[in-house]
Model the fold of this input.
Amino acid sequence: MMVDYGLTETQVMIRDLCKQIAVEKIKPVRGKYDESGEFPWDIIKIFAESDLFGISIEEQYGGMGGGIMETVIAVEELSKACGGIALGLAATGLGTYPIILYGTDEQKKKYLPRIASGKSLAAFGLTEAEAGSDASGIRTTAVMDGNEYVLNGTKQWITNAGEADIYTVVAMTNKAKGARGASAFIVEKDTPGFTFGKKENKMGIRASVTRELVFQDVRIPKENLLGREGIGFMVAMKTLDKSRPGVAAQALGIAAGALDEAVRYSRERRQFKKPICSFQGLQFMMAEMATEVEAARALVYQAARFIDSGAKNISGISAMCKLFASDVAMRVTTDAVQIMGGYGYMKEYPAEKMMRDAKITQIYEGTNQIQREVIALNLIKEAAANT
Ligand code: COS
Done:
């Protein structure tokens, strides 16, 4: 069953290109990277040669000029094969949004062409050991000294850390003001005093790299401030509003990939002298899985299109699609393992990896409890505005 979502020619082209990369290049190596936890530079190079890093970057800065919808289609298709490898691309998008949203023409000219061409990966540094869900509790500081800001502090669990060249980082310029005292900066990899913590050993998405960003008297030119002082928390929130559909797409892809594996397996595996797909117990499970995957796809695509339309209040729908698709991914991958039984539990088959990869989509870029909070707050705000 292939639902027609009325994709444009460009969107179909992106989907087919990513599907080909997923099947021909990623599937054969996903197990190896999951096992070793190495960063998949060979596949990242293929993404770069295929211009995937430029999808959502404006044409005048070397990109394709697409939006969230084009990004979502690419991330979904790549994640069908491996959510971890696809994350190198999606996390670069996350690190780039602050520049797209708040960069001056000069900052965009300097950084976006490097990202669009795939020469440099990007990363986003918000989370700290004591500031996860409570993002405005960050302690990293940026103090003005002459023409420079001096950064001190440590960011935790940063995707693409160490491999990326360009980092967008949120730090406090005025601690006393709380959320209104944060500012966002661009920090380049080779800046003196900027180092990385050890590589984290993760349950899933093991082909992606997660490390600390450590700032010790890191001096960056004042020109690297994004927007103005005091709007760093808003930069972070608006960035997450744009990037959460990417997590939703990653979850959707993982779920769709797991469903495919389960259906294929159920046709091949024979028990009681019949293929196991002929048993209604499994048919009902697969029917539920397929329905949930399609519902997630419809919501993710619609959210992406709504955001691309220039709509103002996107926080709620962005949180909804991330919440829904990631919960679907967890259920569907768990059921895929169940349908495949003992084989599903073995590393020779990809289902157990998909289940491990799915889990993080309920956690990062805001836990699903935080998404519910965002959705509810918007609901209440809207109701208040309408009375
Ligand atoms: N867009 C624009 N502005 C926003 C916003 C958004 N999506 N969300 C909040 N703001 C503004 C608020 O309007 C408020 O502005 P004023 O100070 O002018 O009133 C300010 O930001 C503070 O907002 P709020 O009081 O709601 O902040 P809280 O500290 O209560 O935090 C949540 C709100 C929990 C929603 C936020 O901290 C969050 O999203 N946490 C999860 C972070 C996350 O996703 N981390 C993952 C790491 S990044 S991979």
